[in-house]
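Sequence in, structure out. Go.
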Amino acid sequence: MKYKAFTLVELLVVIGIIAILIGILLPALNKARASAQTAWCLSNLRVLGQATNMYVNAHKGRLPYPTTTLDGPSGNGTYLWFNVLDPYLAGKADENRTGVAKYRAYTRFKQCVVYDRLEGNRTGTAQDTLREFARTYKWNSNLRHNNPYSQAKITEVREASNFVMAGDGLAMDLTGPYVSQWDNGQFSMEVNDIQNSAPPALRHGKAANLLFVDGHAATIRLKSYRRKIYRPPYTEIDSWETEYLDASGNQVNPAQLWASDPSKKSWTMEQLGLRRNPNMPLQWSILGKLYR
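Output:
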């Protein structure tokens, strides 16, 4: 009897064709998955923008506060964006939890889609030191008054369509699972302070999704460079340049200019001898009015 079967050569040809097809399709599938995640993230930011608009209308034009500075030792989030938007997001904190966790609702709208892949689970009633500690979205640290600290008003923001309000900030997906890592847990991000504060996160194909004061969200891709974060585990990341340059064209953190002379805090960009950085066309602050 004669049996029909593939020869070894034919089998290897079929395997080779399948391998080629996988090589062609896999990058396309990965690209489609990345595009879907970017779109989902933008959708979350638009929801945050709508919630912020409702908060502003209910609070005489005041914008949510970027950090816990105004809350004092209580940490109850009276003005903090992460807390004050909950009534407009159907978010409700669990009062049976302990510490700061009883004031916070860990809703997905306040996180980039990468949050679902972060490590860590709640143990007991306290806030988890990994996943729940993470803020993949962070508020613009400059969107407030300084000297003294207080909430900014939306009417003070010029060029609202170009003024960053919130978006992708450095978190555990880029630093690695490091317990209570400082940048991971910050509620705000800072583009000018390249040493002491969490920077924006370029987690969407070397781009960041940002929410602007006028309520629109967009994927922003700017010139970037590699640098190490300031605190352990000192991960190397892609980062954007600062908002200002000095007369010599060097990147500048304005806070360094008034460190020895606090009276300069009321000075404008021109009075400080600074100019806009063409590699950072977005507006993050208004020196003398809205800054960290």
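Check: The two ends are 87 Å apart (CA to CA). Residues 9-276 form one domain.
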